[in-house]
Structure formats: structure tokens, C-alpha cells
Write a structure and sequence with these properties.
With about 250 residues, this protein is α/β, with parallel strands linked by helices. The protein has a single domain, classed as 3-Layer(aba) Sandwich (Rossmann fold). It contains seven helices and ten strands. The strands form two sheets. A six-stranded mixed sheet has the order 6-7-8-3-9-10. Strands 2-1-4-5 form a four-stranded antiparallel sheet, covered by helices on one side. Strand 9 and strand 10 form a beta hairpin. The chain starts with 7 loop residues before the first strand and ends with a helix. About 5% of the residues have low confidence.
Length: about 250
């Protein structure tokens, strides 16, 4: 299938994924082609059930594709063992889930520390980095709180902190602003965009929130498991330094 273009963090050709078997088989991705550059923030839009979440799950090595090529951060996913994929997710991928997936019995700092511990960081070092990330997201004073003591929007900020704390090369987000009010959601996206540009991480964001599309470098529309349109997002220029603590005060 040839080599991917230079500087592509994600390179997919003829990507196929289905669920079920026989008459119950439901195609989710139907020969999809996709290229995303390092440092690019891309937003995936389209109706529910069109394959957006399946696509980011394959890209993040959570689901195995049925056919086609999917090369992520220079690795051909089809050639990786499950152990290799686990290591790739642990080291190089950050996840922001719609349902937060915070551990209810752990403090915010401990929740954010988890990716660092999995990568071998000493507990105290990891906790310090976690508190610093929480502080950057306006929650430094709540480091010892439990998730149940926070609003949905605050829990989403913790989930974003957890996704970014180990400095992954790829961040995938499934509806990251679904629990946030307009002001907080836009502040979060501004921060994510700043990180993508300044730290050259690749961000792929599934969203139904039209208010945040202006932060994308590119908006990709999907329908029935294929890409129907891809276009550049509005040109915002280099973002100013974001201090979310003052933005949320």
C-alpha cells in the first residue's frame, strides 16, 4: 500500500471494521482513507452511528481493524501484538472519554497520576506532576477531593488532565465538551489547541458541539463509515498563552 506521506501521525487506507457476524454483521468503517499530520487538531463530525467513535477506537489501538492499513505514530497496527498495542496506548496515547471513567475511590490527584504510575514514574514524582496539571486546569485546590464531590464539568477537566499528564503524542477525545458549559468548553479547546501547536501532539476529537469547530485545524465529516468531506478549520493563528484558572474564575 506504499509508505505514508511524510509527517503523518495517522495514515489509513481502505480501513474496514464491522461488528457481529453473518446476517447480524453491521459495517462501521467501509474502506476509509485518512491522513492526519503531527501537531494537527482534527475534529470528526457526523450523525450518531456513522463510525466516528469506531474510527478513533481503531486509531487508538483499542479495536482491531478487519482489513486495510492503519499506521499510527509510525507503527502499522495490524503488525502489532496485543501486548505491543497495550504498550502503545500506555506510552503514546491519551484518552478523554465522554463518561469520564474516573476511579470513584481515588482522589483527583491519584486519578491523574495513574498513567504516570503505569509508565513507571515514582509515586511522589507522579503526584507532583498530576497536581501541576490539575492546577493548570483550574483544579489545583481540589487535588485531594473525590470525583463524587465535583460537578460534571469539573470531572471532565480531571479526565483531560489525566489524558495529558504523561505527554502523549496522540490524544483522542470522545465528546470532550459534552458536560461543559459554553465558556468552560471553549477554554478547554483553546488549551488543547495550544498544546497541539506548541507541543506538536496530534489531537483527534469526536464532537457534536458546533461551537468548538472553530478551534480545529481541520473538520472531517463522516457518514455511513466513510469520510464525505474534509476541510480546513478557521484560521485562528497561534493561540495566546492560556491560563484556565483565570478564565474559569
Amino acid at each position: 500500500m506504499g509508505d505514508p506521506p511524510l509527517e503523518m501521525a495517522i495514515h489509513c487506507r481502505g480501513l474496514v471494521k464491522s461488528f457481529g457476524r453473518g446476517d447480524a454483521r453491521v459495517p462501521a468503517l467501509r474502506g476509509l482513507d485518512l491522513d492526519i499530520a503531527y501537531g494537527e487538531m482534527v475534529m470528526l463530525v457526523g450523525p450518531s452511528g456513522c463510525g466516528k467513535t469506531t474510527l478513533i477506537s481503531v486509531i487508538a489501538a483499542v479495536l482491531d481493524q478487519d482489513a486495510g492499513l492503519c499506521r499510527v505514530l509510525g507503527r502499522d497496527l495490524a503488525r502489532l501484538t496485543q501486548a505491543d498495542k497495550t504498550l502503545l496506548r500506555r506510552k503514546a496515547v491519551g484518552f478523554v472519554f465522554q463518561a469520564f471513567n474516573l476511579i470513584p475511590t481515588l482522589t483527583l490527584a491519584d486519578n491523574v497520576t495513574v498513567p504516570l504510575l503505569l509508565n513507571g514514574s515514582p509515586r511522589e514524582t507522579g503526584r507532583k506532576q498530576a497536581v501541576e496539571m490539575l492546577d493548570r486546569l483550574g483544579l489545583g485546590g481540589r487535588a485531594n477531593a473525590l470525583p463524587s464531590e465535583l460537578s460534571g464539568g469539573q470531572q471532565q477537566r480531571v479526565a483531560i488532565a489525566r489524558a495529558l499528564v504523561h505527554k502523549p503524542s496522540l490524544v483522542v477525545c470522545d465528546e470532550p465538551t459534552s458536560a461543559l458549559d459554553a465558556k468552560t468548553g471553549e477554554t478547554m479547546l483553546h488549551l488543547l489547541r495550544e498544546i497541539a501547536l506548541q507541543e506538536r501532539r496530534t489531537l483527534v476529537i469526536v464532537t457534536h458541539d458546533n461551537r468548538i469547530l472553530k478551534y480545529a485545524d481541520r473538520v472531517i465529516e463522516m457518514s455511513d463509515g466513510v469520510i464525505t468531506r474534509s476541510g480546513a478549520g478557521p484560521s485562528l493563528g497561534p493561540p495566546a498563552s492560556t491560563d484556565i484558572r483565570s478564565s474559569l474564575s
